[in-house]
Amino acid sequence: MNSTSNANQSGSPLFCLLGAVGYSRTLDTCVLEVVVILFLTVLIIAGNLVVIFVFHCAPLLHHHTTSHFIQTMAYADLLVGVSCLVPSLSLLHYLRRLNEELTCKVFGYMVSVLKSVSMASLACISVDRYIAITRPLSYATLVTPCRLRACIVLIWVYSALIFLPSFCGWGKPGYHGDIFQWCADSWTTSPGFSTFIVGLLYAPAALTVCFTYGSIFRICRQHTREITQRHARFSTHLEGEKGERGERCEGHPDKRYAMVLFRITSVFYVLWMPYILYFLLESAGLYHHKVASFLTTWLAISNSFCNCLIYSLSNSVFRKGLGRLFSPLVPSCLGCTDAKKTPAPPSQRSDPRCQV
After folding, report:
1. Helix, strand or coil for residue 45?
2. Backbone angles phi, psi at 300, to 5 degrees
3. 64-73, 143-152, 222-231: which has the minimum mean pLDDT?
4. Contact 337/73 with Cβ under 8 angstroms?
């Protein structure tokens, strides 16, 4: 380890995961790695700060208990962005005095724990929406604030414990620290530890999400079929109007909100699936490539920015909170916001129960 750091300081080419493609002799740094990591760091920190501030400024978002899990994910992703400053500063030669082995292990462990919090939170969100839709009358008694707080604490404790064996020499939690040469060359994965992580984290979370959202969409499809049969049975004009109102409101906020959360979950697993597949293949000794390690790892980390983007595109309440947050920065739109605050005529008001 010391010989590696001394070699770097003596003028030998810096270790770059992307090889000669990413190395610049003029700047003596891995340019592509620095650009990618700094770009993602800025996006992740800025995006999750926006999510946190909007949730604090939009009280309507707190009507769903899932908002607590979303905020937990936002804080975890924000910490991911902050921790990504470590490899950036290392590539820019600001961390030469730190122990490379310890820095690499701590960074890899922290990012693995934080992403585990996000994955477990998504699984809890899917269970919460499943209970809200399948047992709406008993939901308030099943999902209490005390149980919600206990679940969030359990997510953090479980995530911290499940990756702890990696510090005792049992395998490698991921490739987040491979920016450091010691992590890439000396810290190897273990088939046993990889199976342990997949069996206790990745697989249960994925199966929970598939079961709950599959059940939710099956219920929605059943309701749509019942409404169609009701329209065919009652063809009078009055009954038709009632049926149309029922069709608009049968997709009540719980189901529409479940669609937003399903998009977040889908994007999460789409971005993480290449990393998980590479993790399994590399642990089994079937495939190993430093470029693939870098690309799949930082593709997975880029998910920490996606939640803000999906919320802004999918959730009207979040967009309103976002507009309220930035309205002081755009004085020209204050008149527009004041006009929107004027109450609409009673005939034009929509049913608040049908809004998300």
Report:
1. helix
2. -65, -40
3. 222-231
4. no
